[in-house]
Design brief:
single chain, alpha/beta, Rossmann fold, S-adenosyl-L-methionine-dependent methyltransferases, 2 domains, seven-stranded mixed sheet, 7 helices
Length: about 260
């Protein structure tokens, strides 16, 4: 099970308001890239680009990455496309802006951000949308994507794990070590009604500075494929589900603006 840090919080909000990001952004943003050092951002970016070519056509595209985090997908997508990013975490955006000084990066909630332009492609990857807590919130996010797509445009959404694929009681250990940092992460999963709860325990050590312990809980909404496609349809997009996604067990949800 891969670690997930989300780009949106829960609860009601006024249109245009940016809700504060969850505490794991404040605590772990500085370690995010280290903890995800094994993730193939280049390969994943190439995969979603190939999907975009299939459904939107060849050539350079206007591309918005929602829940862009520290900008690792945009780092590759910007090489071939005109890109922008949206994220709710100021800590993550601070890192992304250092990495991508030439890419516009906007603070905003995925359910309600408003930009004055439309895009050929909108991506929302690494299961960022799974951090929303209700179907209504997911529908709001997908509707916001629809409003920012041009006719013929494509939304590419990587959902969270389906309920049938999520295994409560699962333990996962991962480690990272280099000259600057040693990190150990243990994850434990459980289910509460239609939500997954993954508790992450971290030991993070820096030479000469000691070891720090952190604990965060990540709550995800468990939805079936049929529920996701229905929500995409209700948002005004023609849905399509690709079972072979970027991460095993998650697939990719596509929405075409016809």
């Amino acid at each position: 099970m891969r670690h997930r840090i989300r780009a949106s919080n829960v609860g009601s909000m006024r249109a245009g308001e940016v809700r504060p990001a969850p505490s794991q952004f404040r605590e772990l943003a500085q370690y995010y890239d280290v903890l995800n050092a094994g993730k193939d951002y280049r390969g994943e970016s190439a995969r979603v680009e190939s999907i975009a070519r299939r459904f939107v056509g060849p050539g350079r595209k206007t591309w918005l990455d929602v829940g862009c985090g520290t900008g690792r997908h945009l780092e590759w997508l910007k090489r071939h496309h005109s890109t922008m990013g949206v994220d709710a975490s100021p800590q993550m955006l601070r890192i992304a802006r250092r990495r991508l000084p030439d890419v516009p990066l906007i603070a905003g909630d995925m359910r309600s951000f408003r930009l004055d332009r439309r895009f050929d492609v909108i991506s929302c990857l690494y299961s960022a949308i799974g951090h929303l807590q209700t179907k209504a919130d997911v529908r709001r996010a997908l509707s916001t994507f629809e409003q920012h797509l041009r006719p013929g445009g494509l939304a590419i959404v990587e959902p969270w794990i389906e309920r049938s694929e999520f295994h409560p009681g699962f333990l996962h250990l991962s480690t990272h070590r280099d000259l600057a940092i040693t990190a150990v992460r243990v994850a434990y999963s459980r289910v509460r009604r239609n939500h997954s709860i993954v508790e992450y325990h971290y030991l993070i050590g820096h030479p000469g500075r000691g070891v720090r312990y952190l604990k965060v809980s990540d709550v995800g909404l468990l939805l079936a494929q049929r529920e996701l496609t229905q929500l995409m349809r209700e948002a005004g997009l023609t849905p399509r589900f690709i079972s072979q996604g970027l991460t095993p067990g998650r697939g990719l949800l596509l929405g075409i603006k016809t």
